[in-house]
Amino acid sequence: MLLRLHKLREGSWAMVPGISLPRSPKRQGTTSTSAHPSKAAGDISSVFPSLSGAGSPPLPPRFADLKRRLLQDHEDRVTHSWHRLLADLRKEIVVIKALGSKVIPELEFRDMHNMEKRTKFRDGLRKRGVGLIRGVVSEREALDWKELAKRYIQTNPSTKGFPADNPAVYELYWSPSQVLARAHPNLLRTQAFLMSHWHSANKSAHVSTSHPVAYADRLRIRQPGDVGFALGPHVDSGSCERWEESGYGKGGVYSDIFMGNWESYDPWESSCRLPVVSDLYNGPGGCSMFRMFQGWLSMSTTSAREGTLMVNPLLGKATAYFLLRPFFQPRRGSIEALGPAFLDSNNWSLEDKTTSVLQGAVPSNCQELNVALHPHLGLQDTMIHVPQVRPGDYVAWHCDTIHAVDKTHAGKDDSSVMYIPACPLTEANAEYLVRQRETFFGGTPGPDFPSSVGESQHLGRLTPDFVMQNIDIEAQRAMGLARYDASQKGLLEGERQTLERANRILGFEL
């Protein structure tokens, strides 16, 4: 149902009758809101040199030292591992070229409890890292949200977006459409279902995949003919951080890869990711949340070459490749001069002299990839379109998945989505919720996003009292607005402790 847009100014939470919630809860060991520096101003191009046109300066010498440390005393193992990886990639690329979008598993929302269908979906998801859940919300509801978003933008002409002259991606985080979509019970169920495919080697790890956490991201309404939002292959949640000891190294996420045993790397293991710092440089758009999946909810019918998503379904093998690529160099020639012989493993060896180069990685930016820097991935063939989506469909991809956007929207209708990832409840994610909750109160961009006045003066923005009266308790918890029930039956001990700790972090006394 469409909401009537009228003047709803944000007020202090403390002034909402019957609601008592601390604005800046603190606990021992928790970083307060003020300790996190604000992000620089910007838009979605801020973390993509290929979009912003910003150059990629050479990395400082300390990255050469880092690369030497990562391979020290096991260079031979890594070299053998690299050659095995190249051979495996050659075989996989043949499969992807032949099957294209058919490798992406699909499941109807209504079939999530059908064991045969969900098992088939599970196998495809774990292998490819991408999945499509159809009919998460009704087509009518999704289309209504789009119309509501368009009215919100028209009512508030100060809304910024990218490209600035003809926006496709809007700097909106708290529009009624986005708040209501994140709170929809079907979406929360879908997120929990998807995250259930992760596992934890540490059974007492403080993580709950059955309690999705809301992450306020942007929305896109891309018009036919647009060529400005031509976002190439990339991976979010950091770039240099994936090699750094103080980044992903804090959890040893990629240790098997750097030790020369990429086959043992498990992209679905969650406990190693809990200590990770994925935004060391406070980039304006760098993600500090642990998102198990990135995702979007479709608000349009969109097919290939109509401004849709493209993904690389090689998952762990692609991750191993772009992490090992900086350590190796061709012995001779170029792809233009040698053709396929350039890619032969015999033509590649460890760097003669260790450089600081991390192909496609720039501090404060996302990890970008291209054919020239990452030739063995066959990106021209392995970046495939997701199947046609309809309003109400939800597309999710593993947080390490390489993805991109159609360079040209050659369709006849808009290509519209709300970016809604799937985030588990962890202590770090609860701490982020505290800061994000403050931005909800004020109508400003979420903590990970470029600083601005945002929607603080927008008409039609939902107030806290509306949210508390119109979304259910699970959605309130996902936004950090209500206490988790740590006494519910069926919780594992690690899950129960996670809920208790989240309550303390969020300012709800036990």
UniProtKB/TrEMBL annotation:
Pfam families annotated for this entry?
Gig2-like
Instruction: Give the matching SUPFAM superfamilies.
Output: Clavaminate synthase-like
Q: Quick one: where's region Disordered?
A: 17-42
The protein's superkingdom reads Eukaryota
Q: Where is the composition biased (Polar residues)?
A: 27-36
Protein name per the record: DUF1479-domain-containing protein
UniProt organism field: Alectoria fallacina
